[in-house]
Amino acid sequence: MPFGVKRYQQYLPFHPFAVEQFDLSNYDLVISSESGSAKGFVGSPDTCHICYCETPMRYIWNMYHEYKRQLGPLKRVFWMFLSNYLRQWDYINSQRVDYFIANSKNVARRIMRYYNRDAVVINCPVDFKRFRHEKNDGYYLFVGQLIPYKKADLAVCAFNAMDKRLVVIGDGHERKGLEKIAGPNIEIVGEKRGEELVEYYARCKAFIFPGEEDFGITPLEAMASGKPVVAYARGGALETVVDGKTGVFFEEQSVDSLIAAVKRVEKINWDVASIRSHAIQFDKSVTREKLQMFILDKYKLFRDDLRNC
């Protein structure tokens, strides 16, 4: 469909129709990886379907009211009816999944709440070997999409108030607004990838993670670089950051709360080796082994059940 790659979100009403057109009936095993509609294909009863769920659709479940508040009056009414339909469709197709994997305990709880299904937790991986530690250049670092729930604006406002250096890596529709409010101590450098991103992690003083995430890879990338994390004490950060050992938490998404956490992180003498050793348990080799064992085990169980029918 026109502009489907860049504007796929605007085609949301058509996602259920589109994914149901995939004919996967000749496959013995299908693994869907999703935070949207990928698990919604219509499969054969002889096909084992394992879903790696990054989260049930945020915009119709746990963040429904937050997304709705961002819409104008007419779009809000349309969204109320559309999201009701999408919730029904999403719940129905969740019942066609044979086995769920969640990327965090946080997401596993949502899968139980919204789908009434159990999920085994296998965390998202970080490529530990990519990252290294170097002496910091005195700046704090934010990495992520510049969209509302990531709370980059909170980080910018807090560092404006402290007059401390902050580098913001990422892009999105909030970028222009952030550039308008950012002081001279704040650099908004856009998207960075590969070695350039690794270098920013390696030389930062600490990593700022002000949003509530399903799991959150960026704090692990910072910890793999031996850097402490200043994280909002909700969501996936509670499963990866150890307060006082690999970072510090702040309890409210407010400027004052974030400033207090930054002051605390500056008072601690951080053990780089300890931070990195914590991060390595989330390395991609660990995730690969857990996934392989789970998939082989569940696929064998599924085939055995078919033969016994």
Which helices and strands occur, and which strands form pairs?
Blueprint: H1 15-19, E1 29-34, E2 48-53, H2 64-69, H3 73-94, E3 99-102, H4 105-115, E4 119-121, E5 140-143, H5 152-162, E6 166-169, H6 175-181, E7 186-190, H7 194-203, E8 206-209, H8 218-224, E9 229-232, H9 237-240, E10 247-250, H10 255-267, H11 272-279, H12 284-307
Parallel strand pairs: 1-2, 2-3, 3-4, 5-6, 5-8, 6-7, 8-9, 9-10
Helix pairs in contact: 5-10, 8-11
Number of distinct helices: 12
How would the global form be characterised?
Answer: globular
Radius of gyration: 21 Å
Tell me the number of structural domains.
2
Report the end-to-end length measured between terminal Cα atoms.
Answer: 43 Å
Please give the CATH class of the largest domain. Alpha Beta
Overall mean pLDDT score? 95
Helix fraction, binned, reads: 40-55%
- Please give the largest β-sheet: 6 strands, parallel
| CATH homologous superfamily heading of the largest domain | Glycogen Phosphorylase B
Structural class of the helix and strand makeup? alpha/beta
DSSP strand content: 5-15%
Low-confidence stretches: none
E-strand count: 10
Structure description:
With 309 residues, this protein is an alpha/beta fold. It has 2 domains: 9-125 and 285-307, no CATH class; 128-279, Rossmann fold. It has helices at 15-19, 64-69, 73-94, 105-115, 152-162, 175-181, 194-203, 218-224, 237-240, 255-267, 272-279, 284-307, and strands at residues 29-34, 48-53, 99-102, 119-121, 140-143, 166-169, 186-190, 206-209, 229-232, 247-250. Strands 7-6-5-8-9-10 form a 6-stranded parallel β-sheet, with helices on both faces. Strands 1-2-3-4 form a 4-stranded parallel β-sheet. Helix 5 (152-162) packs across helix 10 and helix 8 packs across helix 11. It starts with 14 loop residues before the first helix and ends with a helix. 34% of the residues are buried. The model has no long low-confidence stretch (mean pLDDT 95).
